[in-house]
Design goal:
Elements lengths: L1 H59 L11 H4 L3 H14 L3 E5 L5 E5 L2 H8 L7 H4 L3 H4 L8 H11 L5 H4 L2 H16 L10 H17 L13 H14 L10 H6 L1 H37 L4 H6 L6 H7 L10 H28 L1
Antiparallel strand pairs: 1-2
Helix pairs in contact: 9-10, 10-16, 11-13, 13-16
Cofactor: heme
Family: Belongs to the cytochrome P450 family.
Protein name: Cytochrome P450
Length: 354
């Protein structure tokens, strides 16, 4: 009996020992795999960006920088501070400057057209580090996408940029601008806050021109939900570039700025989906009216010599007969709503201010 007990204990120790060896081997493999992935996915890109940023210093070095913050501290903590700082920098460096946004990433700022021309005419690939921050907002549309996807979607959307499509929009430009001027004519000789009304005017324009959506948003009272969401997105996205730790996605998502950014992104996505759904309903009504040979108001307004941007998104197909997915359509609507109103409004603000 004693012999059998000793034999059982030895067997248990061997099994336990084998299990310990196996566990140690599995842990070693896991650590090696984790180290490889961290090196490949984090350290390798970081080294690439650092080397690239350092090479830009050879042609546009701004000056002494902090080892961790780079030039962030000298730019200020708000967007207004940033703009004023960049204006001062452009006076000392009239051609270009390399601004470090942390320990490994820099942004080359161009101030002279001779420096901008080679960059604008370059066929260099898009840098993922810059575009990945805006992707939760506008998706993988033409601004962000690259390679085969960009080429395919650009070909599908080419008719939307034809001059015959764009020419009729001038009447809409004039009409939306008149609404803005009619609002302002009652405020002569008084200070004007131009951001909100100009943004509403450009939003009204892009909605009517590209999305066939007439909302009378310029006449609405109070803050417009979409405009407020875009402002929140812009402000909280900018904060990522003023704090190196915010460049890490999971840290940014835990911050108040990150949470506000993703809440605002949900708002603009819902707005885009509503616009798409409304247009789909209108097009279906038009199809039924055409089949039944009954004229309706919707059909009359849609039966044109051209299709607008959203119509093309909904109806276009490639050589294989495949159209854009619902996600791709929303990404393009998000992209063009943002670029079509916010970027244009920013330019209008500067012109009116000057």
């Amino acid at each position: 009996m004693e012999t059998m007990l000793q034999s059982s204990l030895v067997s248990a120790m061997i099994i336990s020992g084998n299990g310990f060896v196996f566990s140690t081997l599995a842990l070693d493999i896991f650590v090696l795999l984790a180290t490889f992935l961290f090196t490949w996915m984090v350290l390798r890109p970081a080294a690439h960006f650092y080397i690239h940023a350092t090479s830009l210093d050879k042609i546009a070095k701004l000056g002494k920088k902090h080892w961790f913050y780079g030039h962030i501290k000298m730019l200020g903590s708000t967007t207004n501070d940033h703009l004023k700082s960049m204006a001062r920098i452009s006076q000392s460096f009239p051609v270009m400057s390399n601004v470090w946004n942390g320990p490994i990433i820099s942004v080359l700022n161009l101030y002279h057209h001779d420096a901008a021309l080679p960059l604008l005419s370059s066929g260099a690939p898009k840098v993922e580090i810059g575009y990945k921050f805006i992707r939760p907002w506008i998706g993988d549309g033409l601004l962000v996408s690259k390679g085969k996807k960009w080429k395919r979607n650009r070909q599908l959307l080419t008719p939307a940029f034809h001059h015959k499509t764009l020419k009729p929009y001038t009447a809409i430009f004039n009409a939306t601008a008149k609404v803005l001027l009619d609002k302002w004519k009652h405020q002569i000789n008084t200070p004007l806050e131009i951001h909100e009304p100009v943004s509403l005017m450009t939003l009204d324009t892009i909605l009517q021109c590209a999305m066939s959506s007439k909302t009378d948003c310029q006449l609405s009272s109070g803050k417009h939900t979409y405009i407020a969401a875009v402002r929140a997105l812009s402000e909280n996205l900018t904060k990522r570039f003023f704090n190196p730790l915010y460049l890490i996605d999971w840290i940014y998502k835990l911050t108040s700025a990150g949470r506000a950014f993703y809440r605002a992104a949900d708002v603009v996505h819902l707005e885009a989906e509503k616009i798409i759904a409304d247009r789909r309903k209108t097009l279906k009504k038009c199809d039924r009216a055409n089949e039944n040979k009954h004229a309706s108001e919707d059909f009359t307004t849609t039966k044109r010599t051209h299709l607008d941007f959203l119509d093309i998104l909904l109806q276009t197909t490639d050589e294989d007969g495949k159209g854009l997915t619902d996600k791709e359509i929303r990404d393009e609507v998000d992209t063009f709503l943002f670029e079509g109103h916010d970027t244009t409004a920013s330019g209008d603000h500067e012109i009116i201010f000057c």
